[in-house]
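Section 5.1 Outputs to date
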Amino acid sequence: MSTAISAPSTMPVAQGTEGGGAALDQVALMTGAAAVIGAVLLWVAYLHRTRRITWLQRLADFSGRIMNRPGWVALPIAMFLATILTAFLGFIWDVSLHVGKGRDAGPLANPAHYFILVGLFFLFMAGMLAVILPLDEKPGRAAVKITRDWYAPVGGILIAGAGLYALIGFPLDDIWHRLFGQDVTLWGPTHLMLIGGAGLSLIGVLLLELEGRYNRPDPARIDGRVLWAVQGFAFGGLVIGLSVFGVEFDFGVQQFRLVLQPMLIVFAATIALISARLTLGPLSTLLLVAFAFGVRWVVAVLVGTGFEAPRNVFPLYLGAAVVVELLALLPLIRRPLWWGALAGLGVATVGIWLESLWIERMFVNPWVAGMWPELLAMAVPVGVAGGVIGAMLGTVLRGEPLPRPAVRRGLVVAAVVIAAAATTNGLIIRVPENASATVVLTDAEPVRGGRMVTADIRLSPTDLIGADPEWVEILAWQGGTGDDSPGHGLVVDKLRRVADDHFVSTRPVPVHGTWKTVLRLQDGRMQSALPLFMPLDPGIGAAEVAAPASFTRPFVEEISVLQRERSFDHPSWLIGLAGLVVLACSLALIAAMAWGAARVNDRYLAAGSTPDQKATVDT
């Protein structure tokens, strides 16, 4: 057995050309196609605004008669609801392909990108449709003046803005990859633009629908189940949209500390479920959870079985929904902000404990006992803050007054600061110094002719990890999708502990082909990894890291192993600057959503209007 510590070779074998952005011909093709489609849409908008076509207005009026909403609300919402699922399917498929196969040969070589692009493009179009449709009318008291006689609804502006923000993420993503290589992680700055814009667009949809309720063509006509279902669809979409920030945990390939997962679940649950309960009434949160589960399950089966890519599981949110429904029985619900804070506290404690039972049964990495103190220290403040934000959103959607401007602005800022502080804490890691593992590999039965092994691992120093680590596991991924690939390109083996420093495999893992097989540790803030096998990759100029029968290797920063294509040649301040730019844009989008909600609330309540009666519109 080899006892000398040897660092794995990661020196370039030749200058690679892949992993640094799309090929220029693909960039040119996508830019040209976007320009042509954009020009056509602008021309249609011009023809409509100058009254040279009537078919668009007739289609909007037809939709409006069905929904008893103005055409500038009904048609955009119908388009949005038809397209957001397309983008979500593409998103989950795209993540699954990266998990199972690795980097793209280019944006046009990844079939999932077409679904994402089409979905986001139509999302943007839905918002713009609400902006351009109103003719000869001011679409409600909250409408924003664009020209002398052209007003646009607030919800339409927000949907279009969120869609544009998400779409801009695509070209910026290519620039990012050209600078820093392909970071195969969901939490890359430009990736957050894509999912953040799509997720927050649901708030714009809810506000647009609210503007439609204030301006119903037939005030005497009572909204039926169809309109309730439309609202429920939007809230269910908000649950799904806010949950995508934690999708890496759903696949078991999270590149961040496990304590972030419950915080993300609390964040999504409090905002979406508390606002839904205030808006839609009793038992609504249970129906939304069932809807979100159904959508996620169908997409997971379609991707995992139909597309032969790695499957994913997902949070249930049932515990949070039960807590919200029970607390809604209290008289305190008549004071929404205080009730929202209490409900957020309940979700972050009892609700998240109930969720942990599902996580323990279905997910790769359950929440170990040792992480609960930090878990609660992060989740409780986020839950209370999210509950207050959810209560304010529900207050707006119910047509009831918000607190005075200084108070509500302070609450929004405080919620953002709390979420940012908790996230920052979750991102802090420690890489152990002078730590290593001695590994003995035993060949197992080959799969499709490829080498499979089990591992016997001893850690050094012996006290490297404590009694209750978040994970000690072998991750093998990006081995190729399909029935001939174990796990469709993803295998995670949670190692069995024999002694304090001694772990053994529970299943064979691949060490051949394009598989990247890594030993991973996380114990509190300590997070590190070492490669067991890495393939020769001339595309990025990376040498093979072989898997001999026995070896000893040092632990390194996990990102350097999991994000092999990433370039670390640029100064760290440049990466920080790029992240700050995306953060500023994201904060601007959040501020826009808060502004839009407050504007709709203030303008209509000042006129004495309620969502159940037609508003008197200024000319």
